[in-house]
Design a protein that fits this description.
Elements: H1 2-7, H2 11-35, H3 39-48, H4 50-60, H5 66-88, H6 94-115, H7 123-128, E1 138-141, E2 144-148, H8 149-167, H9 169-177, H10 179-184, H11 189-206, H12 212-230, H13 234-259, H14 265-283, H15 289-316, E3 323-324, H16 325-329, H17 334-346, E4 350-353, E5 356-359, H18 361-383, H19 391-398, H20 404-413
Antiparallel strand pairs: 1-2, 3-5, 4-5
Helix pairs in contact: 2-8, 2-11, 2-12, 2-13, 3-5, 3-6, 3-11, 3-12, 4-5, 4-6, 5-6, 5-11, 8-11, 12-13, 12-14, 13-14, 15-18, 18-19, 18-20
Length: about 425
């Protein structure tokens, strides 16, 4: 084990490992901040803990002592308590409470750093971090090199966060989705809230030397937000946030090398986190903008075709005789009509002869099902009391989504009607019995 750490001298590997631990730690906890709609709370705490750090350094004289974690943890719990107190006053909104508390505490910390002579804290390091220097700060015990101190600090925090999420998984899950249900089940959501805030504080302080207080905010939000877009399962979301954190670290270091010229590695990692979020926003299979656009385009195309079937059926009222294309152009635009005819002919739903068209056997059966759904829905809504002049619009919206099973249930409830409220015949496809 000792020989492994002494031989592993590649600074590039250490930088990526430490970055992955930071990003994954933040991503795990950030998932719950996102689910609770408290993403800005991570920003608030990452700034507000500065006074606690300064006080701890004043007492111990070291930025690496455990007193710093305790000081940051106390302020981290105090911050949401002050925010809740202001919000409960009824005069200040939550966003205003967050802004007021964290800016005041952060300002106090900046004043303390700049005005107290014997407090030696590199404000730029605290805010922005510099992960490229972490491999040089080694942990030496008894003359043995155990690797960078940042690795042990961030690794410990990652394991603590993982243990916290694992041990309190059920409580965090229920409290995040329904705090009132959690209280009824005896989970004490307020206590879980403050425990989570304390973990956010400790995670933030452990990341100061690596990525800094400001960039860690992106790590709290982006990997979890990207995972949130990719899945509806909490356990999968947590796993994806860890994978996303690793990708942010490796990809961020690669981006910094590619750009060169002294580009901030931690800033590049946050940039990659933003890129992952944007990719998830656009290409998530269920919620991505691209796939939503494609689904809507397919749905729009399907509805246009089905309305075309219905138009042809209504012109012949079920006789399926030849319909002049000119008659269809009176209902639809000329170009749109010819495009639909071509698509339906390719699908085997339409037949064309000179300047007339008619539905194929397959197309006619599909049109019958749509008309049946439309007219059964009108009949059912009329039975429920919807005015007759409102029936068509309602049925026109839902006719494409009514299943054969629902049609059968409506027909049975209406005692298998032969006509709709307007006197139009209802096609018989599913026979009685």
């Amino acid at each position: 084990m000792l020989s492994f750490f002494s031989q592993l001298q590649s600074h590039e590997i250490w930088i990526m490992v430490i970055g992955a631990l930071v990003c994954s730690s933040c991503g795990l906890i950030g998932c719950f901040l996102i689910l609770r709609k408290l993403a800005l709370m991570g920003d608030a705490i990452s700034h507000a803990v500065l006074p606690g750090i300064v006080l701890a350094v004043m007492m111990t004289g070291s930025l690496s002592s455990w007193a710093v974690f305790i000081g940051a943890g106390i302020i981290g719990v105090l911050t949401p308590f002050l925010i809740d107190t202001l919000q409960r006053s009824g005069r200040v909104q939550e966003d205003a409470s967050i802004g007021a508390v964290f800016t005041v505490l952060f300002a106090i910390g900046v004043i303390m750093v700049t005005s107290i002579p014997h407090v030696h804290i590199d404000v730029e390091c605290v805010l922005y971090g510099e992960i490229v220097w972490t491999p040089y700060d080694r942990l030496i015990i008894g003359g043995s090199d155990f690797g960078p101190q940042a690795f042990w600090v961030t690794g410990t925090i990652f394991l603590l966060n993982l243990a916290f999420v694992t041990f309190f998984y059920k409580e965090l899950k229920v409290c995040s989705f329904d705090s009132q249900l959690a209280a009824a089940m005896g989970f004490r959501p307020k206590l879980m809230h403050y425990l989570l805030m304390a973990v956010v504080s400790i995670t933030t302080i452990s990341s100061f030397e690596s990525v800094g207080a400001i960039i860690v905010v992106g790590m709290f939000i982006a990997p979890g937000a990207a995972a949130y877009l990719l899945t509806d399962n909490l356990a999968t979301m947590l796993a994806l946030s860890v994978v996303g954190g690793i990708l942010c670290s490796v990809g961020g270091y690669g981006l910094a090398i590619l750009l060169g010229g002294g580009v901030s590695v931690s800033g590049s990692m946050a940039t990659v986190a933003g890129i992952l979020f944007v990719l998830s926003l656009f290409f998530s299979p269920k919620y991505g903008l691209v796939f939503r656009f494609l689904r809507r385009s397919r749905l729009r195309s399907r509805l246009q075709k089905e309305h075309f079937y219905i138009d042809i059926y209504r012109i012949t009222e079920g006789e399926n005789t030849w319909v002049p294309i000119l008659d269809l152009q009176k209902i639809n635009q000329r170009k749109k009509t010819f495009d639909l005819i071509q698509e339906m002919m390719l699908a085997g739903m339409l037949e064309k002869e000179e300047e007339s068209v008619r539905l194929s056997e397959k197309g006619f059966l599909h049109a019958q099902k749509l008309i049946r759904a439309h007219r059964l829905w009108e009949s059912y809504m009329h039975k429920l009391g919807l005015p007759e002049d409102h029936l068509h619009r309602s049925a026109d919206d839902v006719e494409h989504f009514i299943s054969p099973q629902l049609c059968q249930e409506m027909a049975k409830d209406l005692d298998y009607p032969r006509q709709d409220p307007h006197g139009k015949p209802i096609p018989l496809i599913e026979e009685k019995g």
